[in-house]
Structure formats: structure tokens, C-alpha cells
Design goal:
349 residues; alpha/beta; Nucleotidyltransferase, domain 5; 2 domains; 6-stranded mixed beta sheet; 5-stranded mixed beta sheet
Length: 349
């Protein structure tokens, strides 16, 4: 089974090719340098860049695969490149995301369906990020039930999953997501976009030199709301950072490092604690992390520490690239949908 997977929900043009669960190739064209100029993703600009990148990325992916090396390749000669007629399914992100960006690739996918009669499978972006944990793992490696924390620039939820295709959202942010808070704090200090990798790097530098800095109490509050519940809130923390930035007025490099360190600690401590609290409420033994901020090293370390203390099994994507928006997660979810007969409501044929 050959699956062409497409992901363009925001600002990355990503295409991947799968043979069953094997990722053959993935090409992702980032727009970070463009959006760095505004410090945020402008939907119309992102859509234009997707349109400009469409055929370049698709051609690169198709030209990267020698069809004769695939399992079912008896009809092809050595060195023959992948053709659109070799594809069995097209999987494409349809929600949620920036509408102009989504429409770019939805239009392409449905055009290919019309031209080549290739079935199109519509994929939910949030669930695909959870399925990124299946990349480079066997199906049996992920045990249910589990709770999963999804954390990105636009989303911050905890899901309870009884099985692979059963997903109940047991919490969603009441204001800002953690990822959005990272972006906004970075913008306050004129650091660039996206925020969390920059903040994380500055925090690491500060932590490395912490032995030479007098220990003080935490600079920013931990917004617990009720510690027995799964709710999150980061708008108050963001406001506290703004007050600190304004009070210092002209920030030195050390100021930026300290604020980044204290802010990241405040976010990570709450995220890790609340995920484990969800485990306690539901009584499951498996916890999972997904999406962009899931690549944050400190967050992974804190959740791992709490997992070991509570004898939990903690999973997160095998590669940092699988945490970002990527077509591989779209393809792997499509494969399991097909395998488990879960595509009836989301397929065009």
C-alpha cells in the first residue's frame, strides 16, 4: 500500500511517501524565515508560500523513491522513479488549521483524485500529532488506555484514549496555550519566531551558569488553578513576564536568559504535574506527549522523572521532527485508519 501524505495546516509545506508503515521519504519546506519578519504567522502569506512550494516539494518526494526497491515492485524496472499512478491513497490534513493554508493542499489532493481516481483520506491534525508516536514503533508498542498531552502554539489539551481510535478530550485551555505563551514571551524580548526553541536555548545557557548565580525564589508564579483538576491557564503567567520585562526596561543578555529560564520552568512544572494528575484521576498506567512543545527537553525530562516516580510508561515521538507539523504523522494515521476500517466517513473515491 503506497500512501502520499500531505500536511499544510499552518506554515510548513510537508509531503511524505509511505509503503505501509515504512516512511520512504519526507520533504518539508519551512516558512520560519518569512514569518520571523512579523513574529507571527500571517495566514495569507502562509497560503501563498504553500502555493509556491507545491510542485517543487511534490517533485522532490516522487523523484526520491526508486519504485523497484519496494515490496510490490514486480512491474517496475530498476531505477524507475515513483509516479502518481503508483499511489494507492492520498492522505491530507483537513482540520484544524489556517483555512487558506488548508485549502491549498486540499485543492491539490482533490485535483489528483479527479485526475487519477486516487482515494483521498481526510485527516484530523490534532489526532495525527498523537499518531506521530507510532512512527518508528510497532503497533503493539503503544498500550491503552492512556492519557496524552498535546501542546503547541495553538493547542493545549489532554486526551483520554481507551483505544487507538477512541479519543476523549478531558481538558482544553481556558485561555492561551503553552506554545502561544512561549511565542508571545519571545516576541516581548524581540527574540524571533517560533518562541519555544529560542526560549529553551536561552534557558539552557542560564541553567549552565546557574552555579555562579545566587539562588533565589522563583521569579514567576505557578498557575495551578485547582491542583486536583486538569485545567491550565497561561495568560496570567504571560502578563507576569510582561511586567518583568517592562520593569527591567533595557534587557541585557543575562536578563533575557534569566527570564527565559524562569518562564520555561513555570510552564514545564505545571504541564508535567497536570499530565500526571490526569493519570491519577483516571487510573491509567500509560502517558504520552505530542506536538511542537513536546520537543522541549526540560518538559520531557520532568515528565519522565514523574513517570519513574509513579511507575508509569511514558512515550513521546522518536524524533524531534515528528513533533513539528509534518506529513509523516498524516501518513501513519492514514495507514492505521485503512487497516482498521476507520475511513468510511472520511474518504473520497
Amino acid at each position: 500500500m503506497i500512501i502520499l501524505a500531505i500536511e499544510t495546516s499552518c506554515d510548513d509545506t510537508s509531503i511524505a511517501l509511505f509503503e505501509d508503515t515504512q516512511l520512504l521519504v519526507m520533504e518539508t519546506k519551512s516558512q520560519i524565515k518569512i514569518h520571523n519578519q512579523t513574529g507571527w504567522v500571517v495566514p495569507e502569506v502562509a497560503a501563498r508560500e504553500h502555493a509556491n512550494s507545491i510542485f517543487e516539494v511534490l517533485a522532490t518526494v516522487l523523484d526520491s523513491v526508486d519504485v523497484s526497491t519496494l515490496t510490490h515492485s514486480s512491474e517496475h524496472s530498476w531505477g524507475e522513479k515513483m509516479n502518481l499512478t503508483d499511489i494507492d491513497y492520498i492522505a491530507v490534513t483537513v482540520k484544524p488549521g489556517l483555512i487558506p493554508s488548508l485549502l491549498t493542499w486540499i485543492t491539490v489532493a482533490k485535483t489528483l483524485w479527479e485526475m487519477y481516481s486516487i482515494p483521498v483520506i481526510e485527516i484530523d491534525h490534532i489526532q495525527a500529532h498523537i499518531f506521530a508516536n507510532y512512527l518508528e514503533r510497532e503497533e503493539a508498542d503503544i498500550e491503552y488506555p492512556l492519557v496524552c498531552l498535546t501542546v503547541s502554539g495553538g493547542h493545549n489539551e489532554i486526551y483520554y484514549k481507551k483505544e487507538m481510535f477512541s479519543s476523549e478530550k478531558i481538558w482544553e485551555t481556558s485561555d492561551d496555550s503553552a506554545g502561544e505563551a512561549f511565542d508571545k514571551v519571545a516576541k516581548m524580548m524581540w527574540l524571533g519566531y517560533p518562541g519555544w526553541p529560542i526560549i529553551s536555548e536561552l534557558a539552557w545557557v542560564y541553567a549552565k551558569n546557574l552555579w555562579n548565580i545566587e539562588s533565589t525564589s522563583p521569579l514567576f508564579p505557578r498557575v495551578w488553578l485547582k491542583k486536583t483538576e486538569n485545567d491550565f491557564s497561561f495568560s496570567g503567567l504571560k502578563s507576569a513576564v510582561k511586567r518583568e520585562v517592562d520593569a527591567r526596561w533595557k534587557l541585557s543578555d543575562t536578563d533575557k536568559q534569566e527570564i527565559a529560564y524562569e518562564f520555561q520552568n513555570a510552564v514545564v512544572e505545571v504541564l508535567a504535574y497536570k499530565l500526571v494528575q490526569a493519570w491519577k484521576n483516571l487510573g491509567v498506567k500509560n502517558i504520552m506527549l505530542a506536538w511542537g512543545v513536546g520537543a522541549n527537553t526540560l518538559l520531557r525530562e520532568q515528565i519522565m522523572k514523574l513517570s519513574l516516580e509513579n511507575s508509569l510508561r511514558f512515550l513521546y515521538p522518536k524524533k524531534l521532527s515528528y513533533c513539528m507539523d509534518n506529513a509523516a504523522m498524516i501518513g501513519i494515521m492514514a495507514y492505521y485508519q485503512i487497516k482498521n476500517n476507520q475511513v468510511n466517513a472520511s474518504i473520497h473515491s
